[in-house]
Design brief:
Elements: H1 19-32, H2 40-44, H3 50-61, H4 72-85, H5 89-93, H6 101-118, E1 121-122, E2 127-128, H7 132-136, H8 139-175, H9 196-206, H10 209-217, H11 234-237, H12 239-251, H13 256-260, H14 264-281, H15 285-296, H16 299-304, H17 323-346
Antiparallel strand pairs: 1-2
The protein binds a DNA duplex (21 and 21 nucleotides) through residues 1, 3, 5-7, 14-17, 36-38, 50-52, 54-56, 58-60, 87-90, 101-103, 105-107, 109-111, 162, 165-166, 169.
Domain HTH myb-type: 9-61, 62-116
GO molecular function: transcription cis-regulatory region binding
InterPro entries: Homeodomain-like_sf, Myb_dom, Myb_TF_plants, SANT/Myb
DNA sequence: AATCATGGCAACCGCTCCTCC
DNA sequence: GGGAGGAGCGGTTGCCATGAT
């Protein structure tokens, strides 16, 4: 659109930052806050473009950054969230306190991607690379519906990340009177309400009263800013009904723009499959949802990779035959999603912000 | 010891999104 | 409503460190 890049001015320095530059930037932000990034370099006496300064600050100088090796927990979190979100590094980063999106992205590209590949998992789709099996056993249709689910959740998380950004902006303004280390603003007012659907899944799944309560809670105070989930208490007893209700609501809401593009028939398809899931498995839709997702994504291969012992609870008995094996398998599914939910629940009301 | 290959990470680039006028 | 500018995001590049030959 004819807009000139911010860094094309001659005389602006590029490349690695020197300790002196770091010091200048740090000192300026500590005293004044970053304010307008574009104006910052001149005020701070730096021969850099604002963009470069922002990057340096957010990826390196910020005091609340945790550096060093990623823990196994963090690795799992990244893998799980990547399965849901794809390459939305900033959204993933909102669930990993003290890690920057750039760091997560780099870690994914240099470590996790390769590791998943080695384990026979497509790092993009999180499915086993030999996907042919799916198309022959009738699961492919279900899998595509899962993909719709994932898209929906993904879109929602994106919206939530946007909200986080907005609130960050707002609090940056507010905190501009007391510069720096604004106990940052990135953090939304409470724990991120992402993955509401997964919470719901979880509740349905375990069928525990507590979880049921948490689901009903979604209708009220648990509501995410962007969430349009609406669960009735009767939905607990009729899981798929609850799910259908949620689908209907979402399609008429803020995410409608995205979802509608898929067409009404797609959603009808989901409803039909929702029903078919129930009848074919004797379980509920959500159970089948996770079941399928995991059978398509990593469980088998994670088990294969258990020798690396990096995957703790993700590694289980895998696809072993027999009732007990399938029970373990379901347990693994629960663990997998529980770990996502736990991470969301426990994630930072004090999450780092800059 | 020298050279080459590979891995890891910081930084850049280009694009999109959002806000303001 | 539309354009301009600022900010943020994701992909990519380039440099440096380390390991292999």
């Amino acid at each position: 659109m004819g807009r000139s890049p911010c860094c094309d001015k001659v005389g602006l320095k590029k490349g690695p930052w020197t300790p002196e530059e770091d010091q200048k930037l740090l000192a300026y932000i500590e005293e004044h806050g970053h304010g307008s990034w574009r104006a910052l370099p001149a005020k701070a006496g730096l021969q850099r473009c604002g963009k470069s300064c922002r990057l340096r600050w957010t990826n390196y100088l910020r005091p609340d950054i945790k550096r060093g090796k990623f823990s196994i927990q963090e690795e799992q979190t990244i893998i799980q969230l990547h399965a849901l979100l794809g390459n939305r590094w900033s959204a993933i980063a909102t669930h990993l306190p003290q890690r920057t999106d750039n760091e997560i992205k780099n870690y994914w590209n240099t470590h996790l991607q390769k590791r998943l590949s080695r384990m026979g998992i497509d790092p993009v789709t999180h499915k086993p690379k030999s996907d042919a099996i799916l198309s022959t056993d009738g699961h492919s249709k279900n899998a595509s519906n899962l993909s719709h689910m994932a898209q929906w959740e993904s879109a929602r998380l994106e919206a939530e990340a946007r909200l986080v950004r907005q609130s960050k902006l707002r609090s940056t303004e507010i905190s501009s009177s007391s510069p720096l280390l604004h106990k940052p603003a990135l953090a939304p007012p409470g724990p991120p309400r992402c993955l509401d659907i997964l919470k719901a899944c979880n509740g349905v799944w375990t069928n525990k009263p507590n979880n049921a309560a948490s689901i009903t809670g979604l209708t009220g105070d648990l509501e995410s800013p962007t969430s349009t989930l609406s669960y009735s208490s009767t939905g607990i007893g009729d899981n798929s009904a609850a799910f259908i209700e949620f689908v209907g609501n979402s399609s008429g809401s803020c995410e409608a723009g995205i979802l509608k593009e898929e067409g009404e028939e797609d959603w009808k398809g989901i409803d039909e499959n929702t029903m078919s899931f129930r009848s074919s498995s004797g379980g509920n839709f959500l159970e089948r949802f996770t079941d399928l997702l995991l059978s398509n994504s990593g469980n088998r291969s994670f088990s294969e990779g258990c020798g690396e012992s990096d995957y703790g609870d993700i590694c289980g008995s895998g696809t072993g035959a027999g009732a007990s094996a399938s029970h373990d398998y379901l347990e693994d599914n629960k663990n997998y999603w529980n770990s996502i939910l736990n991470l969301v629940d426990s994630s930072p009301s004090d999450s780092p912000v800059f």
